[in-house]
Amino acid sequence: MITKEDLATPVKPTWCPGCGDFGIWLAVKQALMQLDAKHEDVVIVYGIGCSGHMCNFVRGYGFEGLHGRPIPVAEGIKLANKKLKVIVVTGDGDTYGEGMNHFISGIRGNHDVTLIVHDNRVYGLTTGQASPTAEKGYKSKSTPTGQIEVPVNPIALAVAQDGSFVARGFSADPQQLIKLIVAGVQHKGFSVIDVLQNCATFNKVNTVTWFKEHTYKLEDEGHDPRDKVAAFTRAIDETRLATGIFYQDEREPYDQDVPGERGVPLVDHDLSEADITRTMNEFL
Amino acid sequence: MSLFLAVNKISFRIGGPAGFGIMNTGLMFSKACSRIGLHVFDYVEYPSLIRGGHNTYQVRAEDTPVRSQVETVDVLIALDEPTLTIHADELKEDSLIVYDDATIHPEHTVLKRGIRCPVPLKALVAEVGGPEIMQNTVALAAVLGILDYDFSVFETLVQDSFEGKKGGIVDQNIQVARKGYDYAREHYGHHSHYQLKAVKAPKRMVLTGNEAIALGAVQAGLKFYAAYPMTPASTILHTLAAWQERHNIVVKHAEDEISVVNMGIGAGYAGVRSMVATSGGGFALMNEGVSLAAITESPIVIVEVMRGGPATGLPTWTEQSDLRFVMGAGHGDFPRFILAPGDVEEAFWMAAEALNIAETYQSPVIIVSDKYLAESHRTAEPFDLSKVRIERGKLLRQAPKNYLRYADSPDGVSPRTIPGVPDGFFLANSDEHDDWGYSNEESGIRNRMMQKRMRKEAAYAKTMPQPALVGATDADVTIVGWGSTKGPILDAMDWLAKDGCKVNFLQITHISPFPAETVKKLLAGTKRTLMVENNYTAQMAGVIREKTGIELKEKLLKYDGRPFYPEEIYGRVKTMIGKGGAQ
Asked: Which positions in chain B touch A63 (Cβ < 8 Å)?
């Protein structure tokens, strides 16, 4: 079991007071402690942004990648060593802007990776430009007359693209978020967890109060996470934002279908066993 | 008509529209020549489309080593009329031309020279009820018949090549081959002034540069390969994908080259040998990843198989115009390790070497190749696998107490753990970081980390292979080149040596770090130099000038997508020496 001390680092969080990142950080750590996993068998891959800064506040095997690119790094790690529990901690700009292709492809491949997206509708670290989930009309430094595009709907996209685990949490409800992260990591496949959060400094519209007024829990309305049509219907309702597990199924994860692994994690293969003699002979 | 007898010295070409099985037929001819002990080099030209256009496959086979194609054609198979026009100038008076006169009319073309040997390809295929594509086999067998090639050897080759295909295909192919062979011998047996006869020789493989890279990487323990399809790198993907079960490799066709390089880095970080490949455009997308591998000190091998640029450029043609791009790849300062194989042997050994450098120096390593090397087949003896070394550097399976991943060290390389090792925790951080990996922007730490990483280049430079001159001592002309120009350069040198010309060759295989002192010393002792490059701006000449201060004034450059022919190099050197003459 992983303890609180195991996860402690000498670096103090640099997030603004009141930032939703604190709640997500707490939930990530609590979830790790509740998982039945060895500390060394967990890898967290981070994106770039305020969310990615969490890499300095959680001790363990970590990889802070490039903006938009943590998902393929995580997939490469999982394919190299399928024993590992691989988690991605990233942001909405990372995932739904720069990295949208990887988001969709990760879902398609059903790589056994848990994706936790900080979704605060702004780019915090670059001082508050509208993110891909910002509402139409949202005014920011990069959209002074209002955002023209409609927002990305990550939950609807994930359900439509055959996501095998699609959930939404809220940074101000860490208890629910812990459960979602534990369920996501335990799920064999690509787990999408979009996490609504406030940006205390730059987003004065989507505050904690605003999110509280606009969200409800799926479990309170008897939603069945095996009902894909119901999941999609709830996902496209942008007036009331649902939290909880929208959809889950048992589709085989990518690493179960890979021909080259032979049951043993790639990293455990003995490299000195390589012998291309027979293959070379085919060129004669 | 026979003017002379040429035994085991032949230049063969088959041409026709794409989709007519020209690639397979050409390769069959290469293998047929290799099977009787000849040295073979082949070269394909094809446009970037699936149907139509003009495809050609050229094979040169001799009983002494050959490493390039030549300008003249001794035997031509034409599967359409344009082939006769396009290649008319390559033919000599005594060249043999095989075609089906039911569909092809030489009088509609500009064909002037050559001996016409029409064979009813279509009719012969119809006699055995085979599919139209079998005309290739008939034409090939007809050529072998005229060349007095042993049919039983060809029969075995057909059996080996179609092994595993649906019942009847093998027999049907052999049947039509026999018909073509007999027809040609009966009608054109008297034209056997070109002959192919078995010679005593070791068994040789027929393989491309891409296949050699795949073989070398697998023997050196490659476990993870990712790619997005891009000519001319794609055949590495196809080759490794076909071997993934047999050799226990995970091969991932990812969504784009950005994903490819990031997956490769993830796999390398997690402890498996990891390689990716692409061409210039895909490599442009990978650039940020090169930088990421450098700062996180993650091993990965990236193969850049060049084609004609800029942009989509000449997708199926060759060029060496990405040298400067590869040398400058990735933003920021970090050690660059770049290898440039010049033939299939070097491709094999450098794939293994690159994986070793990547793990030893915990860095990205780039192999720069091109379409000409990647897709041309050459004969090579099976590689001596006992000489393949797997060097994993400072890889730890157990962590020492108070382990620090990025601790400073004299060679810049710090011991590396991988996920799964108890107490070996660290953060691989794309931000500048401290010894543990936590983000840190302090001046002192920044300087120490930069110096630590850069020191790896100096450490490697002490052990890296140094270039040497090959060829005549006290040469009048020194040819300088890199990569795939090696083949035509060496072939031209063979001809020049026969003419009594003293020529040698400086090939740069290890491009970064650049072996400046050795190159400077070698060039200082030369009389005249000729820089040979497949690009417009003589990029390597520029690098040599930058690194050594030596300007190579005389250049032979080509940027039309075609590789050098040895005749071009031979002619230029002859002019330089002032003796004139032709091969």
From this structure: 266, 269, 296, 427-429
